[in-house]
Specification:
The protein is α/β, with parallel strands linked by helices and about 425 residues long. The chain has helices at about 25-35, 50-60, 95-105, 125-135, 140-145, 170-180, 195-205, 235-250, 265-275, 310-315, 320-325, 345-355, 385-400, 415-420; strands spanning about 5, 15, 40-45, 65-70, 70-75, 90, 110-115, 135-140, 145-155, 160, 185-190, 205-210, 215-220, 230, 255-260, 280-285, 290-295, 305, 330-335, 360-365, 370, 380, 400-405, 425-429.
Length: about 425
């Protein structure tokens, strides 16, 4: 699927979306964290996307057994993680590569992490440098900045790391390394980034606390962790594409079922509400994660908004949010978002190029951009191999009709995205 044509929506829609892709971040972690126990973990609703399936294959290469029983997956860890006889292919998953760097740094053995051509071009020093500062032996192209990365795992030191960036991937890699340190480690960031790792590891028995100065204190466990027994919720980042669709198509409404309501994952919905859309959240359960439904409805033309805080909480939703900004009244601005430069693509450049192709006026800065609301024109947009860019501009197609190229990447996170979009408009694959 290299090219998708999305037709303009002919009228309002009302939809209940209960087949949103399972959460990608939690699926990655569920597969990896199962290796930290000495008993089988039960995982339901695991994302069957390319990225997470690559992570699952790596878990098997490290010695785990994976068995399916209908919707449930059982991951049985080995007595000891084994040294693989081949490279570990993360595909397109930056989360997979960065978290495995942390997990494997403290494991005796030799491990080579690689990925597709896009992942091999993404910077990894943000993870490899702090890991090397605590004794990890990691090398790769450009002195460990680019994959393939070689990890010679072994003993690690306890550390105190004050992170210059707010990144859940960096934080998670350091926390996983801290589990094999020789004492309590401390990690701090300016703004709490997405906290799935802390929540899930606490649920498995790890002591992770935050002190009065904002340091996250991780105490290495004395024994194997409790196994997971988790149902992966629907991904709010994936659901957000349909939230934007309802917010920009007059008189439309969508109900997103069984999604994570973790406050570090729903910031984009808050911003969409600030722009004028109706947004309602209904919590139904809370174990590892708060879970529930999100209702989003059109409530008139959207208003421009400035986005400069809690960036780590909505970094993945900014491409879709740019589509809402493009049809809002006034000029919206995004700042403090340099992290966008090192995602699956340079998302600042990718998004602004796409908006320009559709007739929207934008202005680029080093750490963000401005988008002046207008009217979409029909056109063609290149995804640059970035799944979130591809899906965002597919939503733009609901307004004016858009052709999106290089769309195979959508399979990495939301394989049934276009099937769901066909509930709203005509999609030609």
């Amino acid at each position: 699927m290299s090219r998708v044509v999305v037709a303009a929506c002919r009228g309002p829609f009302v939809a209940t979306i209960d087949q949103i892709a399972p959460d990608k971040s939690i699926s990655h972690r569920a597969a990896m964290f199962a290796l930290l126990s000495d008993r089988p973990s039960r995982v339901r609703n695991f994302l069957q996307g390319e990225d997470t399936l690559n992570t699952l294959r790596i878990v098997e290469q490290l010695g785990a057994t994976v068995e399916y029983n209908g919707e449930e997956m059982m991951i049985t860890p080995p007595e000891q993680l084994r040294e693989p006889d081949d490279v570990l292919d993360c595909g397109n998953a930056g989360t997979g590569m960065r978290l495995f760097c942390g997990l494997l740094s403290g494991v005796e053995g030799s491990f080579v992490l690689t990925g597709d051509r896009y992942l091999r071009g993404r910077p990894m020093k943000r993870v490899t440098d702090p890991l090397r500062s605590i004794g990890a032996r990691i090398d790769g192209r450009e002195s460990g900045n680019l994959a393939p990365l070689h990890i010679r795992g072994g003993a690690l030191e306890a550390f105190r790391y004050d992170s210059p960036i707010d990144s859940a991937q960096v934080k998670s890699a350091l926390i996983l390394a801290a589990l094999r340190g020789n004492g309590a480690s401390r990690y701090r960031e300016n703004l709490l980034s997405r906290d799935h790792t802390e929540r899930m590891l606490r649920g498995m028995g790890v002591t992770i606390e935050t002190d009065a100065e904002g340091w996250i204190v991780i105490t290495p466990p004395n024994a194997a962790l409790d196994p997971l027994d988790i149902t992966v919720p629907a991904d709010p980042s994936s659901g957000f594409f349909f939230a934007v669709a309802a917010a920009i198509i007059p008189d439309s409404e969508v109900l997103l079922r069984n999604v994570s309501l973790n406050p570090t994952r729903t910031e984009a919905y808050r911003v969409l509400g600030e722009m004028g859309a109706t947004v309602e959240m209904i919590e139904t359960e809370d174990r590892y994660e708060p879970i529930g439904d999100i209702r989003v409805a059109y409530n008139g033309k959207l208003r421009a908004v400035d986005v400069s805080r809690n960036i780590a909480w909505l970094i993945d939703e900014l491409p879709a949010l740019a589509i809402a900004m493009a049809v809002a009244e006034g000029t919206s601005r995004v700042r403090n978002a340099a992290e966008l430069r090192v995602k699956e693509s340079d998302r600042i450049a990718s998004v602004l190029t796409g908006l320009g192709n559709l007739g929207i006026v934008t202005e680029e800065s080093a750490d963000g951009y401005a988008v002046t609301g207008g009217s979409f024109q029909s056109g063609t947009v290149d995804s640059f191999g970035d799944h979130r860019v591809a899906m965002s501009f597919s939503v733009a197609g609901l307004v004016a009709g858009v052709t999106v190229t290089d769309t195979e990447c959508v399979e990495t996170s939301f394989p049934n995205f276009y099937a769901l979009l066909e509930q709203i408009t005509k999609v030609q694959l």
